Structures are given as structure tokens and as C-alpha cells.
Amino acid sequence: MRWKVLLFTLMVLGASLPTESHALAVVFTDRTAWQTAVDLAGLTREAVDLSGIPDGVITSFPLPFDETMLTNPTGDLKTGDSMFHGTPATVNTFDPAPFTGAFGLDMRPLSINGGSLATMTLTLDDGSTVSSLVAEGAAAFFGWIGGSTTNMTFGCTTGDCEEFIYTAMEKGEAFSAIPEPGTVALMSTAAIAGLAWLGARKRRS
Length: 205
What we know:
The chain is built from 3 helices and 13 strands; from the N terminus they run αβαββββββββββββα. The protein is an alpha+beta fold.
């Protein structure tokens, strides 16, 4: 009877542990710090190469590790390794989504009279969002690790902002599937339950 109580307790604990899909995204504003964190997390970093895509208006572009970035609305303009967007905001969706890993890029708003602000917002699969403001001037880095990201939205927060640019994109991802914490807990529960069952059977014999 005692081993049955132990089994039930372990199953409840394993099922109640949070999974990676709803983990919070950790945001970085410094590229070097982000790169270091990605490497320490055991993810493989790779630059997003736009050089093979013809310049001009595009609606999507490939990412490393067999993924695509879909842009809505259309009107993004690729020049070299940079993307130019006019207002209103543009939504960049990962396909397949959600994307779990790390992503980073530089962004800069441009306006007629100066002093404009741009905003970058992540949307996670649990509905939560993480935002960061970028002032006009030198490009600012925006990167994150973790969470299950469904899209990232870029836009200007002032009326005279003509366009914004983002470039120098990097992606970090694990090549092999990593079990989520909840899955690992359930696997451990099954293993312990098996040992408990064997122990009870041995005592009866």
C-alpha cells in the first residue's frame, strides 16, 4: 500500500511542474552579453544571411535551421543585409511557430524631424508580451532567450517616423530536441514508480 501512495504523490508532482513552453523570455540590450548567454545555454548561434535574397519588396525570408520569417503587412524593403519598414507596425511571424531558442538583431528608427521612438514587442504563446523602446540615433540591440515566441512586432511610436531599419540578425537554436522540464519529471516519475513496484514485488516473494 505504501508504494501506491508514493507512486500517486510522484505523479502529481511531475504533472504540476511547469514546462519550457511557458517559460519567461529573458531580454538583452547588449549583443555581447546575449551571445555569451546563448553559448552558455548550449544553443548553436548562426547569422541570418539575407545576401542570397534579391533586393526589393519581399514578404518572407529564410532563417537558419529550416525556418522562415513571415512579414505582415507587406512593404518591407530588403537592401543588402538590412530590412527597411515604413509605418505602420510590421509583424514578423516564425514558421513553424512557436519558436523556442534565441534571437537577436539591431534596430533603428528614422523620422523627418528627429526624436522618434521605435518599439519592439515579443508575443509568447501564452499571450504575454515583452517590449523594448529604441530611440532614434545609433542602432540598438534587442535579443532574447527562452519562451515560445509566436511573433515579434516592430513599429514607430511617433507620427513623424518615416521608417525603421533592422539588421545584423542572429538566431540560436538546439539542433536536437531537448525534453521539456515537465517531460523529464514525468519520465523520472515513471522510473521511480517502476523501482517501487519491483521492490514491493520482491518483498512479497
